[in-house]
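INFO batch 0412 | record 1 of 1 | parsing
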Amino acid sequence: MVVWLKVPFAEKDEAKALGARWSPAQKKWYVKDGADAAPFQRWLDADAPSSPQPDAVQQPTGDETPPAGGAIVYCDGACRGNPGGPGGWGAWIRTTEATVEVFGGSPDTTNNRMELTAAIEALRWLPQACEVVVYTDSQYVVNGMTQWRHGWVRKNWKDVKNVELWKALIAEGDRHRATFRWVRGHSGHRGNERADALANEGLDHAKRTGRSEVVVRVVAEHGAAG
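INFO prediction complete | emitting tokens
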């Protein structure tokens, strides 16, 4: 038995990257029954039969304490007219010493590129290698960094999109010993909501100026909450 999906044409590459498959006979996308349905929630076909999925794991709140000498990053990306529209990315970074907001955008991009850029630029902002926990609502980013990366390297990056961004994220993630964790988007999670707002601020900035820039804003020092 399979779980059927309704995937818009513009999002088929993302669905495929997450593990969905195309059925020529049914002319639909699907995933095997029993697979983690979390990455595919927005595409679930309500009219098609599927097996019940287990409850999602308990989500973090956005108030997690940074590891000693390290940081917590909440990051997100956004794109209007995906693919090929203006996009933005944002990251809310908390260390034991400060809370910092980093954001930017591009006048012509894709949502996946913005999700990757958010994580890359957040890790780049931390100059010294340290322990970092990265929270993102992008299964594309989490799965790439935890499951797919080694296979991509073995296959010499064949058929992988956004290769230059993946290589940059892997380099930064390894430099910081980063751990990537998924959080459900738009669910009231404090860090994710702030990162989403920053991504949209970056998008508006890129749309207004026509430039790709990085903006850094120190919100609080000495560990005060942002």
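INFO post-check: Strands lie at 2-5, 21-23, 28-32, 71-79, 85-95, 98-109, 132-136, 178-182, 214-221.
INFO record closed
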